[in-house]
Design a protein that fits this description.
about 300 residues, alpha/beta, globular
Length: about 300
């Protein structure tokens, strides 16, 4: 096995964290669709940025407060079909950014497209690691889903058909929420997010250590508790995996799928060939991701 310089640095940082008991903040840059595209286009010159008009058959409610914690307003953006003659399935969407960056605005293109196809999409803003460590963000997403269901009449939501979707760190969070709230969530869409921090395939991460309050040796309890793979049972909802060709973001996926199948729970995976992480932030990969997502949701929710 070839270990590059970055891996050596990672091992060094883990040692420093263990020795001093504190996790330095990752040097995270703002995580946006536009910034990600700018980075990716250097290596993938054929990609194009996400530029889609707002579909005419949807409405958007921006910055709706779903909770207030000691003066901190937690907000969501709601994208919904204008047709309220019938109830629609709902999708709670969780953005990525290594638990320390990103925003609900990253979800706007996927949310718009899902709403135009008959889903009510809620892009959730949650407390990032600089504000509050695990499990705060997880609690926020659960609170948002509870609020979402309370607003079912306003948005014509079918509260019995609510799914969760996330990308990267948001996929880990969405999957964890989905498996923990298995009796309230009907489907999970995991877009290139790990499902276990403790699986043999999982790699140490300064981002995870910062969010989880210490590295795996210091805070194994949190690393285990935050791993969706630990919760699979006969009541787990169907799960779709859409992955890049970067193996470290698949950690635990195959074992999770095998467990789901042992319970006869529907699951499928699609690996988009020759793609980097954050592939959903540019075309043509966004459209492919959208198609896989809609096919899955139409199958399990409609």
């Amino acid at each position: 096995m070839i270990i590059n310089k970055l891996t050596y640095i990672s091992f060094f940082l883990v040692g420093v964290i263990s020795a001093f008991g504190q996790v330095p903040r990752p040097n995270a840059t703002p995580y946006t669709n536009e910034g990600t595209y700018d980075k990716l286009k250097k290596k993938y010159p054929f990609i194009t940025p996400l530029e889609r008009p707002v579909p005419q058959n949807i409405g958007i409610d921006k910055d709706v407060e779903y909770s207030n914690i000691d003066g901190l307003s937690l907000k969501a953006d709601i994208y919904y079909p204008l047709d309220k003659s019938k109830k629609h399935p709902g999708i709670a969407m969780v953005h990525g950014g290594g638990w320390v960056s990103g925003s609900k605005e990253n979800e706007r293109y996927m949310a718009m497209e899902l709403a135009s196809k008959g889903y009510i999409a809620m892009a959730v803003g949650y407390r990032l690691a600089d504000v509050a460590k695990y499990p705060a963000g997880i609690e926020d997403v659960k609170t948002a889903i509870k609020w979402f269901k309370k607003k079912r009449k306003k948005y014509s939501l079918d509260q019995n058909k609510v799914a969760v979707l996330g990308e990267s760190a948001g996929a880990q969070m969405a999957t964890l929420v989905g498996v923990q709230l298995h009796n309230k969530i009907k489907a999970i869409v995991n877009i290139d997010g790990i499902v276990s921090f403790i699986h043999p395939e999982a790699e140490e991460s300064i981002y995870a250590s910062y969010w989880l309050g210490g590295d795996r040796n210091v805070n194994l309890k949190n690393w285990t508790e935050a791993s969706p793979l630990e919760y699979i049972n006969k009541n787990t909802p169907p799960i779709l995996f859409i992955n890049s060709s970067q193996p470290r973001f698949h950690a635990g996926r195959d074992d999770m799928m095998n467990q789901l199948r042992s319970y006869n729970i529907f699951t499928e995976s699609h690996e988009i060939k020759d793609t980097p992480h954050s592939f959903w932030s540019a075309e043509p990969w966004f459209t492919e991701t959208l198609h896989y997502t809609l096919d899955f949701l139409n199958n399990v929710l409609k």
